[in-house]
């Protein structure tokens, strides 16, 4: 190194050290005799400063942490729609307690209290400087994350931007997680007007886990549709006069319906259907379905529930199948979720099988955001479990709307639905795939981009040669051209043995619930297929679904429950 370079380096180093020393002196002078201070922290990830800042106010032995958004960005329409909870963190150093506090969107208040010990689980690993102030460097490990805590005793105050990682006896100026996430003090100022730090009300107190859960759930809109409602064969019929918010049984009792009030706006939301089911008497695995009933056309599924002959029928050979396809004056039910009950959950949990511990009920939870256009305002929501038992099953249903600004709202149009919802009221099984295919026409008023088919499919026929246990390709055509051909199948049914106490055990060591099936397992949800259709022109289109349905044996038939909605 040349001599002039060496001199320049020494000069810069000296200037740097002098600046740090000046900073330290300045901060010591700035807060001298202060009753309170305010520390501003910034967050840096891999060298990039994040827009949010944290401001800690300290008065005496107490501090409060507030988060401040410095991005100056305008709120989106979605953010204006949904109010977020206001959260703060407090530390009372004299009481050796830290607190979490929140005001929820409904203006209720909750809090959590955690005692602490100075330096607990923090190990000294070195010394350093920040803002010219001498620091002790401590280290801890939380959930496999290595965290360094830099604190100083050069100022007569105690505070921290992260109480949850450990609280030393001093003023924390910096924390470093895994070497790349840094929270560091950028300024310290004297508080001119000192006010009480701790809140006037702590509201409902709870432990830290419940506090965090309550915070997260406070922004979720939950609609309770059904609560342990019986679904059983009781010969129930839908009455002529219907009221909102009242549960009705129909189709012999295996369908329950309710007209509910849903959120008026779903922009920036993702939606989940959450079902809890258990047996109240039925020992077998049954087809279940959650659906909505479109009522914008001349006829709807409500009309079909009263009189199957009142709605358009799909013609296959000499046979007619009412209500399976949408037409100009009728829409099929929009199937949100297909699920299958376990073998006798809860009611038959007294059955003993070595090594098995039966669950009390089955939870099915699936995202239905793609069909959320049908889940706005007033809507008819239905649930179906096909069974012939006088006590049958119990079912609860919640629709949950979660904030998620990245979600798109799709237009959707129901095209077909062959789920045998009204079997117990005389609806014929959809057996036409043996000699025919499903055909449905639909008309688009204008061209659409990136159209997708939301497709649910399960095969049935519960004997060795039946379609339940044999792989069959599903082939879909649009306007005469094949879009896709695939085999819907599930090999993972053995995973759910604990949900099936009444499942039969075979000589070879397997249980009935272990067996692989045509896209379903007892006690599971069947996931939809999203089939890309591409750009579609305005005008009439024809969709065809072909499945090589197996032949009947004796009194047993194979059949397929398929439903599809166009998304765009």
Structure write-up:
The protein is mainly β and 568 residues long. The chain is 9% helix and 42% strand. It contains four helices and 32 strands. The protein has helices at 3-30, 77-81, 208-217, 301-306; strands at 36-45, 48-59, 62-69, 86-92, 97-103, 109-115, 123-130, 133-142, 145-152, 171-177, 181-190, 204-205, 221-231, 248-250, 255-261, 269-279, 287-293, 313-316, 319-322, 334-340, 362-367, 378-385, 393-403, 412-417, 438-444, 448-460, 474-478, 481-486, 525-526, 529-536, 539-546, 559-567. The chain has a twelve-stranded mixed beta sheet with strand order 7-8-9-10-11-1-2-3-4-5-6-12. Strands 14-15-22-17-20-29 form a six-stranded antiparallel beta sheet. Strand 5 and strand 6 (109-115) form a beta hairpin. The radius of gyration is 32 Å and the shape is elongated. The chain starts with a helix and ends with a strand. The model is unreliable at 8-18 (pLDDT under 50).
